[in-house]
Amino acid sequence: MGSVSLKIGDGTARFKRATVCSFAVNILMLFSVIITNLFALYAFTYSPKQNIPNPFHHPHKNLSLISQHVSLIMKEIDSSQRKLAQMEKQLLGYDTLDLSRPNLATELKFFLQHHQLPLGKDSRTGITEMVASVGHSCEKSADLLSQYMSYKVFGPCPDDWILAQKLILKGCEPLPRRRCFAKTVPKVGLTSLPASLWKPVGEKILTWSGLGCKNFNCLNNKKLSKDCAGCFDLVNETQKYIKTRTKNDFLIDDVLAMGSGGIRIGFDIGGGSGTFAARMSEKNVTVITNTLNIDAPYAEFIAARGLFPLFLSLDHRFPFYDNVFDLVHATSGLDVGDKPEKLEFLMFDIDRILRAGGLFWLDNFYCANDEKKKTLTRLIEKFGYKKLKWVIGEKIDAGGSGKPELYLSAVLQKPVRV
């Protein structure tokens, strides 16, 4: 993984990525220190073989000679440090976001400036200034980022949530904050819990700009994902988790009964329109649903049901403290492609936020082939989770191919590690 640092003093923001070349830099620094010390030792101990008068006879000349040697040593050290800094920059390869470019938004420059702590250095952390958070990949999308940060201060924000989501999906996360007012949509007809969980959501209270569909009828006739085929039709969703359709479907009551110490709070990854969180809410379990608005207004729809949407990509570290959730629920939205390391990073973050004894519910995870199933199985086994329930089954593809597809469902319990 890389480390991120922003340095604005010279008008630039640098995004530094540590590489294997760090070892070479450390060797060079050690070599420079040794040479400098040898030079100092030589300067203070060397004496010519010719006769030299007693130094105490000329104290001023002796002090002057020492001063010259010290000055030479300091110049050598300073020169070495500059050379090492330049070599480190060349070896490590800095990605630079040049804030002096004329086409860069002024607001972005303001946001990235350092902010000195009002009371100076913090004694506990050693921090003297605060640096604004911005995704390390933002420099690769500097033009889009500048477009996102071009707006009238204290005016209305541009209707550009599609641009913001595009930046997030390009790794520019977190995004910079903005000093403008987001567009407001009147939320007329909202009801209180628990009635709001299953009451149809009005189309007029949602934002349809930037989407191909402009109504629920269009969304429900479109297979948005393997986990959201008609998921905006709440009548169709009412049977989920209380009645099984295949052997891969687990009942919520059965899973809750497996929870050690009780299930109170949970995190749902790729939760579609929020039906899982709604069912858990009926069981007095608070669930946060991770979502992005890919082809549909997921976040607003979930919020309209009185539930908690978290607008976040799966490449972002989950903004939760360690060991806080009793349950993590994931569907095929957990799929991050064919890169095992990427799935490992995600699984370790899931493990981090799940408490010991907590449950990881893998719900109808689509296995494109047997090799993908084996890869996921081997990864799960490395974590040492207890398999409370494990089912591999086939379902007919609802997309029209009619071919059977392989799915994995499991309830796993996180062990206590010492």
From TrEMBL:
Q: Which organism is it from?
A: Hibiscus syriacus (Rose of Sharon)
- Give the matching InterPro entries: Prob_Methyltransferase, Put_SAM_MeTrfase, SAM-dependent_MTases_sf
For this protein's source organism, the top of the classification is: Eukaryota, Viridiplantae, Streptophyta, Embryophyta, Tracheophyta
GO annotations of cellular component type: endomembrane system; membrane
Record Pfam families: Methyltransf_29 (PF03141)
As for subcellular location, the record says: Endomembrane system; Membrane
What GO biological process term is on the record, naming one?
A: methylation
Q: What is its main location?
A: membrane
Q: How does it sit in the membrane?
A: Single-pass membrane protein; Single-pass type II membrane protein
Q: Which residues fall in a coiled-coil region?
A: none
The name this protein carries in UniProt is: Transcriptional factor B3 family protein / auxin-responsive factor AUX/IAA-related
Keyword Methyltransferase found: yes
Molecular function, one GO term: methyltransferase activity
Record field: transmembrane: 20-44
List keywords of the entry alphabetically. Answer: Glycoprotein, Membrane, Methyltransferase, Signal-anchor, Transferase, Transmembrane, Transmembrane helix
> What family is this protein classified in?
Belongs to the methyltransferase superfamily.
